[in-house]
Structures are given as structure tokens and as C-alpha cells.
């Protein structure tokens, strides 16, 4: 293959051909030979060869060319092709041109014409050789530079990798240093600690170096109760591959903290363990939160007492013990506060809550620490008495509680009285389920309430049957209105001095298909508990107004007769109450001035503002308001001034005791004076004897009601009264006039 092209330039074709001929002999076929006859032709040839990327190791150029001097051409070529070896041919040893060419064209040699062929051969070979050496040198240089660049690049890469490694190590260290969790490494053989981050000191309260220097410190810091877990942790971890344990530590400052240690085994490619690594988290807060949740699940938030869940758990435990331990007994007290709802509604929930807390404390003081005082919710508490000797243990506790409750509680600015009704049940082989014990204690508590509150009752199996029958009664009551089983009875109210009938109080009864006539005391409380009272009360009011309107029209003696209807608290709070009253008055055609509504003191205690508004609305309709059972309620009389009331009904307990007890006479007297001051009427309830009636007239009481005149009677009997239009009572003319004149014949038989 050709190593390049030699260019010969001369305007003499003969010289050119002899030159080509001689050169071919010198160089054989190693190089191509091209010729040009002028400078221009030569330059063209150069650029063609260059374009074809053919190297030009040598140019032999005559000095005398038709278009330029050989020295000038070579000088020009030197700029473009510096590597090409340049030889000048001179005919007449033109020294000036040679010197110019040596300087400007880096001339390799000049040859004088005519030349000696051997000389030409040596010169050409030497020139080519020199060119080749240059080329080789250049090549080597190029290779060297490439290697150099590669080395440089490798070095740069290594440096940047080192930097990265250093950065990431720093990062890792700063992370490990800033962690709150403890990071540790231990050796596989002997489990010596190799590394601990600074968090170890924060968590344990001992310096990292203390742990690294004293291998036993690791387990010494652990709470003695949990130490067994930690002692063999590393062995177990190594066997399992990964392991997590929770334990407590005792810090030098005495604080106990919960830790979770999660370790895993690091292995090499052959899965041979090389290290143990792990993280220790401080889980104290988490444990605290868990404990709090657990506590909350079993305790009442307000009082901190065990709640129903915990109580049931404890009863279950007692039941189990009963099976195991011979003669083991226990008892359950179900305590419900009397009048708590009234206190809560009238004094506010804050006072109610404070009272419950105070009661909780009191109950805890009434029992031993082994007993469980629990709050079921609202105003319901229970006491589980553990290991009792007999029922007396339970009744003693109940008596103690009732006794303590006779003193008032100071709650904030208020002095509050509250009683309690207590149901007791004691352990029995027939009890297998905690809920049954609670149910029976509850039943007994209800019985205590029914017996007038403020007492305790021991459960007996008949009570259960009675409760079931009560449930049945409740079920029946739901349909009583629809089935028209409710009937109205009427009890006359007499103007004492005139002995004339002025009002009738409407008292509801339930004509039960199987039980016969059921009295309101038996079903009104059920109706109130179940909300049925709204429907029943509305029916009573409607029926009373319709009946009275009819009587007014039918009987001349009834033309100004008024009807008095008892209201339940729930009715007064009903948003539609006034609307219903309006509707009933319109439908019945009764004028509001013939209707009286009876409320009790306790109904007015709560929601005072709202009730004042309602009572004013009633007064706008000329409806009058009586305060029933007056004197049995609350000592604060200030509300009497605030409410628009018309009549006070003295409770029959005062009337019945009045003759025997001067204190009761005093009370009755005070009530009458109070009513006079407030411009209100007074009705004495429950007058059973003439002596009572006479005494009441003497005290200034205007109206009376009671068996002396008539028990509540049915519609037919009332009509008979109205037809007879009798004189009901003839008061003695003077206080000392005795015996009293004979009263008119009156019906004394109870309906
Ligand atoms: P109250 O409103 O205080 O009614 C007076 C109660 O005393 C009546 O009992 C009546 O029979 C009784 N009584 C009347 N005179 C005498 C007497 O001389 N001696 C004795 N020992 N008792 C006498 P009753 O009818 O059993 O009603 C009991 C309570 O039931 C009523 O007391 C009232 O609070 C309630 N009640 C009755 N009917 C209704 C009603 O329609 N709605 C509401 N919400 N409650 C009613
Ligand atoms: Mg009444
Ligand atoms: Mg009454």
C-alpha cells in the first residue's frame, strides 16, 4: 500500500520525466509520484490530495516556475503543509532563493541541476525517513496524550468517588448523632458492643463509653423485673435472625423508661453472620398512652371510679371465686340518687358533676379497699362488697350511706341535699352471670324508689316477677290511650265558707282489661319514664275541657265550674304545649278562665326562664296556675315571686298532721299568710275530718278538697252531684260553737 504521494514541480517536461523515472527507482512503489508544471497546478494538486486525505511526505520543486519562484511556492506550502519535506532544485545555484527557502520554507535540502542520481537517491530517502520519524513521533505523542487523558479521567473519578464516600459517611454520622433512637452494633463472637450512637446516653443516662468499657452495664440498667429478657437477647437474636423485645430501664436519676429493642443479624454473601445491629426506641410515651387507654376503658371519666366494664369483670371474678372457695359470699349494692335530675337541671351540670364526684368520694369512704365502688353512668353507682359474712354486711353499708347522705353537700356556693335509693342482692349459687346480679340489684333499687326513696331494699325473687309484670304494664300502657282504657275521675274542690262546689280536679285512672282500675301512682311514673305522659297528658287535658264544656251547658249549677288538670313536667317542656292548649280550647269551646293547671314546685326549678315565659302565655289565655303538693318541695320560696301563680295547694301531709302537731299547723298558717301576701288563693288538700275543715277555715284557708267532701268520682256521680247542687259543708258559726252542724250527706266510698 502506498505511504503517500511525492510531488515534483518543474516547467521542463524532460526534467520532470527524468525525475519521475529516477524517483521510481529509488522508492520502488512505496510512494505515488505526481507532477505539476507550474505553482498553480501544484497548489491544486496539493488541495486535491489533502481532500482525499493522502499524505504528502515530499515535494521537489524547481526554482524557476512560469508563475512564481520555487522558494515562494515552498514558503507558501510550509504554512499549509509544514510536515511535508521540501527540496528545491536550482539551475544556477541561486543562493538568495535558497537562503529564502531555508528560512521561510524550512527547506530540507537544495539540489543543484544537473544532479547526481545517487545524491538525489540519498537525499530523497533521508527526507522520507525524516518525515516518517516525525510521523511516528507524532503518533507516539498522540497515544501518550490519550493515555494521559485516560489516567487523568480515572484519577478525577476516584477523587469524586472518595468525596462522595466522605460526604455520605459524614451524612450518616450526623444522622446517627441526631437520632433520638439508639443505634447499636455488636460482635457476633462474645457479643461485645462495637458501636453506640450518642442517643444511648440520652436514653439511658450513661455515657456511650461506659457501655463500651463495661459490657455488663447493658443489662445492669434494665429493671430487675425485665432483666431476664435482656440477658439472653443476643443469643436469641443470633438464633432467630431478627428479634424485638420490650423492657423497662432504671435511669440513674431514678426515672423508669420503656424501651423497645429491635435487632437483626448482618451476614456476608455466604450468609455467615458477621455482626449484630439494632435500634432501641424509647416507647415510654406510647406505653403511657396505652395504659391511659386501658385505664379509660375501665374507668369513669368524671369520678375516676371503675366503670360498668370493670364492675362486670370484678363481679365475674367474684362469681368464679364463689365456685372455688367454700362459704365465699359477696354482695352487690345498686345506688341511685334521688332528685339528682332536679339538682342537675336547676343548678347546672357543673354543680351536678361536682356533686357526683363528692358522692363518689363518700361511697369510697363507706367501704373497705377490697370492695369496688363503680359508677354506671348518670347518678347510678354500685358497690361490690367482697367476702361478706352475710346480708347484714351489705345492709350495714347501705345504712351507713343513707345516714351520711342526710347531711348536705357543699358544692361551690350551694348546699345540696340528695338522698339515695339502694337495691341489694347477694351471692347465690343460682347466679352464673354478672349481668343477672346487676339486674336484680337494679330491680331492688327500683323497689326502694317506689317505697318512697331514701331507703334500701334487698332483692327477692318475687321482685323479678313483679318487674316483669311492670314491663307488661308498660307494654299495655302504650296502647291504653288508643283502646280508650283511660277514664277521668273528678274530685270536688269546695269554697269552705260558702260550702259550694267551685272546681273539680281531674284525676286519671286506667280501666285495665285484666287488672281492673289502676291508680295514677302505678302508671303515671311509668308514663313519665317512657315519655307516654305527653300523649296521655294531652288526652286528659282535651277530655277534661270537652267534658267541662258539656257539663257547663247541661247543668245550670256548673255554669261557672272550673276544671283543674294535673300537668307533668314533660308536658310543660314540650315545644308544642301552648299550641296544643290553644287547639284544645278552640275545639272544646271552653273559655280559658275555666281551666286551671296544676304544677309542682320541682317542675319549676329547672329551665326557670322558659317556664316563666310559658306561664305568662297561659295567663294571657286567662288560664290559672296552681302549685300542687305545696310545702313538700324546696325551701327557696323566692321563685314564688317570680312565677305568675294563682293558687297554692297545701299538701295533704300537713293537713293530716295538723291537728296533732302544732308545728304542722304553723306551716299551714305560714303558707296561708304567704298566699295572702302574694295575692294567691289557697286550697287545702286531703281534708278528711270536719275538725280539719273547721281548723282550716279558722286559719283563713278559702278552699278545700278531700274525702270529707268526696273522693274522686266518675262522670256519672259528678253529674249526680251537679243535679243535687248540694251544700257541701256548713261551717260552725263561731269558733267555740260545738258540736258542729251536721254536714250534708256525702259519698265516702272510694271509686
Ligand atoms: P294530686 O294531684 O296531689 O291529687 C290528689 C291525690 O290525693 C289524688 O290521688 C286523690 O285521690 C288524693 N286525695 C284526695 N283527697 C284525699 C284525702 O282526703 N285523703 C287522701 N289520703 N287522699 C286524697 P290520685 O287520684 O291517686 O292521684 C295521685 C296523683 O297522681 C295526683 O296527685 C297527681 O299528681 C297524679 N295524677 C293524677 N291524674 C293525673 C293526670 O291526669 N296527669 C298527671 N300528670 N298526673 C296525674
Ligand atoms: Mg293535683
Ligand atoms: Mg296534690
Percent of residues in beta strands? 15-25%
The CATH homologous superfamily of the largest domain corresponds to EAL domain
Radius of gyration: 61 Å
Instruction: Write the CATH fold name of the largest domain.
Output: TIM Barrel
Count helical runs.
Answer: 28
CA(first)-CA(last) distance = 148 Å
Question: How many β strands by DSSP?
Answer: 26
CATH 2nd-level architecture of the largest domain: Alpha-Beta Barrel
Number of domains: 4
Strand order of the largest sheet: 18-19-21-22-23-24-25-26
Oligomeric state of the chains in view: single chain
The top-level CATH class of the largest domain is Alpha Beta
Instruction: Give start-end ranges of low-pLDDT stretches.
Output: 736-751
What is the residue-averaged pLDDT?
91
Shape: elongated
Which percent range fits the helix content?
40-55%
Instruction: Profile the largest sheet.
Output: 8 strands, mixed, barrel
Bound small molecules, deduplicated: ligand C2E, magnesium ion
Structural class of the helices, strands and pairings? alpha/beta
Describe the structure.
It is a single chain. 49% of the residues lie in helices and 21% in strands. The chain has 751 residues and is an alpha/beta fold. The chain has four domains: 5-132, Rossmann fold (3-Layer(aba) Sandwich); 179-298, 2-Layer Sandwich (Beta-Lactamase); 305-468, Reverse transcriptase/Diguanylate cyclase domain (Alpha-Beta Plaits, 2-Layer Sandwich), CATH 3.30.70; 486-724, Alpha-Beta Barrel (TIM Barrel). An eight-stranded mixed beta barrel has the order 18-19-21-22-23-24-25-26, surrounded by four helices. Strands 2-1-3-4-5 form a five-stranded parallel sheet, with helices on both faces. Strands 7-6-10-9-8 form a five-stranded antiparallel sheet, with helices on both faces. The longest helix is centred in the N-terminal third of the chain and has 62 residues, at 117-178. Residues 736-751 have low confidence and may be disordered. Bound molecules: ligand C2E and magnesium ion (2 copies). One magnesium ion binds at residues 628-629, 649, 685.
